[in-house]
Design a protein that fits this description.
With 375 residues, the protein is α+β, with helices and mostly antiparallel strands. The protein folds into two domains: 90 residues, no CATH class; 207 residues, no CATH class. The protein has eleven helices and 13 strands. The longest helix has 21 residues.
Length: 375
C-alpha cells in the first residue's frame, strides 16, 4: 500500500532543492514530520510476546495535523468533549465557498484571510438566525476551515454546524427553527460577502482585491443534518480532523508521478488521475496551515464566554424532551476498535500479540530517537 510518506520520500528532495528557499517553515516541518512518522527516527517502545517471544516495535507518531496517520486518539478525545456540549436539537450543515477571484489573495495572506472568512461566515449565520422571520434567537455555530478538493486543488470553504434553534434575547425560551429550514441561502451568501468585504477593508486596507468577487453571487449550501447528538458526532467525525488526502486514496507511485483516487461530485463515481511528483507536492503543501492557526472555531452559544447561555439552552430543551427508556445497546460498553493494533504503553491491560493472537505483549524498553533500535 502506498503511503503519503512514501511519496514524500520519493519527491521531497527535488522539491526542496527547487523551492526550499521560498517555502514557509510550516511546509518544511510537515514534510519532515510525515516522513518520520511511526519510524525509528521518532523513537518508541519495544514489546515482546510472553507466548511466542515475537518482538513488536511501536514507534511514535509525529502528531502533525497534516499527517494522515495521526490523530485517531486525539479525534476521539475531542469528540468525547464535544458530545458533552452538544444540544439535544436538530442541526444544519452550512457550507460557504469563496469565489475564484478571491482565492489568490487568501492563499497569499492565509492567517488573516482564513480567520476573517471564518469570522464573517459565523457572524452572518448568527445575525440571520436572530431575525424573527427565521429562528429569532442566538444559535450555536461550529466552523471548520477546508481548503481542498478531491484532486487537491485550492478551494477554500467553511463548513459550519449550526443548531436548529436558539435562545431568545431575554434568555427565557428556546426558539426552534422550522423543520428543514434555517434561512434562505441567497440571503446568507449576500451577508457573508458584505461582511467579509467590510472586515478586509478595515483589517487589511493594503490588499487590492478584484471587484468582480463582490458582484458575483457566492455559493452557499444549507442542509438539514438530522436530530440529536449522534448526527452531530457523524458530522464531526467526517469533517473536523480530515486531512487533504488519506493513504487510502493513493493508488500507485513511480519515479515521475503518483496516481490518486477521487470522487466526482456530479456522478459520485470514483475516478483516478495521475499527478507529477513536483505538482503533487505543491498541491498538498498549499493546504498546510500556518503554525498555531485554529481551523476549528466556536461562535454563538458555543463560544466559551456563552457557556452559561448554552447551559440554559440545554435545560430548556431537556424540559421539553420526553424521557426515553434505556435500551440494552446503550447499557453495554462500547467494543474497542480493532483497526489499530499498535500497543499503547499507557493501557492498563496488556495488548494481545498480533502474531500468535494467544500471548500478550510485555513492554521491554523505551526506544529513544537517538538510539531507536536499542543496544
Amino acid at each position: 500500500m502506498v503511503e503519503l510518506a512514501d511519496v514524500f520520500r520519493r519527491f521531497a528532495g527535488a522539491y526542496l532543492a527547487a523551492h526550499g528557499t521560498a517555502m514557509p517553515a510550516s511546509h518544511r516541518r510537515a514534510i519532515a514530520d510525515i516522513i518520520a512518522c511511526r519510524t525509528e527516527a521518532l523513537g518508541g517502545h519495544l514489546w515482546r510476546c510472553n507466548h511466542c517471544s515475537a518482538e513488536v516495535f511501536a514507534y511514535h507518531s509525529c502528531k502533525n495535523r497534516s499527517c494522515p496517520k495521526c490523530h485517531s486518539e486525539q479525534t476521539q478525545a475531542w469528540l468525547d468533549r464535544r458530545q458533552a456540549e452538544m444540544l439535544p436539537a436538530p442541526y444544519f450543515h452550512v457550507t460557504i465557498t469563496v469565489p475564484e477571484e478571491l482565492r489568490p489573495a487568501l492563499r497569499s495572506n492565509q492567517r488573516d484571510g482564513y480567520s476573517l472568512l471564518i469570522k464573517a461566515s459565523a457572524q452572518a449565520i448568527i445575525e440571520l438566525a436572530r431575525d424573527q422571520r427565521f429562528v429569532g434567537g442566538t444559535v450555536g455555530v461550529l466552523a471548520v476551515l477546508h481548503t481542498w478538493t478531491q484532486q487537491l486543488l485550492y478551494h477554500p470553504h467553511v463548513h459550519c454546524l449550526v443548531t436548529g434553534g436558539g435562545v431568545s434575547a431575554d434568555s427565557r425560551s428556546w426558539c426552534p427553527a422550522r423543520k428543514g429550514f434555517l434561512f434562505p441561502p441567497k440571503a446568507l451568501a449576500k451577508l457573508v460577502r458584505g461582511k467579509l468585504r467590510a472586515i478586509l477593508r478595515r483589517r487589511r486596507p493594503d490588499l487590492v482585491l478584484p471587484q468582480a468577487a463582490w458582484r458575483k453571487p457566492w455559493v452557499v449550501h444549507i442542509t438539514s443534518w438530522g436530530v440529536g447528538e449522534q448526527a452531530v458526532l457523524d458530522y464531526l467525525a467526517r469533517y473536523v480532523f480530515r486531512v487533504a488526502i488519506t493513504n487510502a486514496r493513493l493508488v500507485t507511485l513511480d519515479d515521475q508521478a503518483v496516481t490518486i483516487r477521487y470522487k466526482q461530485r456530479k456522478s459520485s463515481a470514483w475516478l483516478t488521475c495521475r499527478i507529477t511528483g513536483d505538482e503533487f507536492m505543491r498541491r498538498f503543501l498549499q493546504h498546510v496551515l500556518p503554525k498555531g492557526f485554529h481551523k476549528i472555531r466556536y461562535f454563538g452559544l458555543w463560544h466559551p464566554r456563552n457557556r452559561d447561555l448554552a447551559a440554559r439552552a440545554r435545560l430548556l430543551l431537556l424540559l421539553d424532551r420526553p424521557v426515553a427508556p434505556p435500551t440494552a445497546a446503550a447499557s453495554q460498553p462500547e467494543a474497542a476498535s480493532a483497526d489499530d493494533n499498535t500497543p499503547n504503553p499507557r493501557s492498563t491491560e496488556p495488548p494481545v500479540c498480533p502474531h500468535c493472537h494467544i500471548g500478550h505483549l510485555l513492554l521491554i524498553r523505551r526506544l529513544t530517537p537517538r538510539n531507536p533500535m536499542g543496544p
